[in-house]
Amino acid sequence: MNIRKITIAGAGTMGYSMADIFARNGYDVILWNHRQTTLDRVRTKISPEAADKINYTTEKDAFKGRDLIVESIVEDLSAKLAFYREMSPRIDADAILATNTSGLSINKLAEAVTLPERFLGMHWFNPPTMIPLIEIIKNEKTRPDVAETIYQLALDIHKKPALIEKDVPGFAANRVQLAVIREVLSLVRDGVISVEGADAVMKYGLGFRWACLGPLETADFGGLDVFYHISEYLMPDLEDSHDVPQLLREKFQAGDYGVKTGKGFYDYSGDKAKKATSARDQKLQAIYDAIYGEQK
């Protein structure tokens, strides 16, 4: 399968960023949104290299004659199902339809798709212009060649794909991330370590290493015998609650959502949010360039 013509449905942060990346890598890109005002606003956020290479439209014929449609509308099951019921019949029979959901069931979404064998998840990570990973998630009917086509597409745009063979809640990355957050918040809750200390453990220890080696590679280097013996005494003591962590629940109930509200586990009032975001992006770019070379 040859992918050259791509339509991105949804012009939020993820949508316009994907359009930008595909356009900069030579693809014929349409960015579709149901509101013209949204399209007008995101034009100013597209990189200069892609600015004149993206077509913007609210017309539904944007889904005809395309090789790939990537849906990136609001992260709501009902909205996505309604979108697929209306739009998937408009898509060519030989096209591929992908969703950028971060956790909704691919099998459930596939129920509303005309050709589920040509449907799969294509989960990008924020900020998508900097994070290399794309999770490619198959539903029960996804054809192997469809998954392989999207895998190769991810490589072509200089991303690092991971194929998720079975649709499970949270896929792979979010399951690992929430397992870490659960343990970290239990340590903070019990007074073992501060919020700042917990982040230091990740940034300067585990996270620093994991930028180069995955956890299983790390175990190989450390010695599986060592990890076996540590597991024997440590596994029974790890946090295994099935509930939302207490500290996270308290933040949610207080309306402290993080950068977007000016307060989370840290203070982002005034210009602190802008500075924190800029610092994050500079560090991510430096890591990307150091490990993978100049970003495309």
Verbal overview:
- The protein has 296 residues and is an alpha/beta fold.
- The protein has 3 domains: 5-164, Rossmann fold; 171-247, Orthogonal Bundle (N-(1-d-carboxylethyl)-l-norvaline Dehydrogenase, domain 2); 255-295.
- 44% of the residues lie in helices and 13% in strands.
- The protein contains 11 helices and 8 strands.
- The chain has helices at 13-24, 36-42, 77-87, 106-110, 144-156, 173-189, 195-210, 215-222, 224-234, 246-254, 272-292; strands spanning 5-9, 28-32, 54-57, 68-71, 96-99, 119-124, 133-138, 160-164.
- The chain has an 8-stranded mixed sheet.
- The model has no long low-confidence stretch (mean pLDDT 96).
Strand order of the largest sheet: 3-2-1-4-5-6-7-8
Average of per-residue pLDDT values: 96
State the CATH class of the largest domain.
Alpha Beta
| Through-space gap between termini | 23 Å
C-alpha Rg (nearest Å): 21 Å
Number of domains: 3
Provide a compact summary of the structure.
It contains eleven helices and eight strands. It has 296 residues and is an alpha/beta fold.
What would the keywords be for this entry?
single chain; 296 residues; alpha/beta; Rossmann fold; N-(1-d-carboxylethyl)-l-norvaline Dehydrogenase, domain 2; eight-stranded mixed beta sheet; 11 helices
Layout of secondary structure:
Layout: E1 5-9, H1 13-24, E2 28-32, H2 36-42, E3 54-57, E4 68-71, H3 77-87, E5 96-99, H4 106-110, E6 119-124, E7 133-138, H5 144-156, E8 160-164, H6 173-189, H7 195-210, H8 215-222, H9 224-234, H10 246-254, H11 272-292
Parallel strand pairs: 1-2, 1-4, 2-3, 4-5, 5-6, 7-8
Antiparallel strand pairs: 6-7
Pfam families: 3HCDH, 3HCDH_N
Protein name: 3-hydroxyacyl-CoA dehydrogenase family protein
Pathway: Lipid metabolism; butanoate metabolism
